[in-house]
Amino acid sequence: MSVLIIAGLDSSTGAGLARDLAVMAELGLPARIAATAVTAQDSAGGCLQHPLPAPMVAAQIHAAGPVRAAKLGMLADAEIVAAVADSLPPVPTVLDPVLATSAGVGLIDAAGLAAMIAVLFPRATLITPNLPEAARLTGLPEATAPDRLAAALFELGARAVLLKGGHGTGTEAVDWLCRPDAPALRLASPRKPGTKRGTGCTLASAIAGHLALGADLPTACARAKAHLDGWF
Known about the structure:
Blueprint: E1 3-10, H1 16-27, E2 31-41, E3 47-51, H2 54-63, E4 69-72, H3 78-87, E5 93-95, H4 110-120, E6 126-127, H5 131-138, H6 146-155, E7 161-163, E8 172-179, E9 182-190, H7 199-212, H8 217-231
């Protein structure tokens, strides 16, 4: 029943592997981990980062053993993306396309982003971009309708998309689960004041956890949305 977490280490524990592991503990699930990078982040928005060698990332994945689902976070560069793609077990996989920290510091280079789109979008069961990430990935404005953003992401190879609305406006934070063969599913919760790091990690990890527990994709997304709302 284990979930494989592939992500970066955030020294503040507000995001990355530490947050992912906290979610697995909250769900009562064992986790296996593969660290992709070590980062030093502070409250002022600074971020130093050191990607690990790609063979080490691959070795961690192979050593993790059997798992029921996987969650991918920070991938850093093209070599790590390739190592993950070559080593990833054939299980339901949630890809959180982490492009930058909350303060805007980049967490993947241009070659890594291109590789992620090319080799991991078609492999992932679900990708979970927020609105700024979806806009950067597609070249469309953040205010573009969810169905158009999702269609553009499908053209890039995504199989299913959860468009996260935390960066939007209004009294509700609305996420949209979009699949090519089904109507879009609206998932809403009251918008909370302020900001909190690690929300994307929490949501993607909770989805992966519920997939490991046997939920279908819409149910996993709905349960993860409720989990995030309770944590925030």
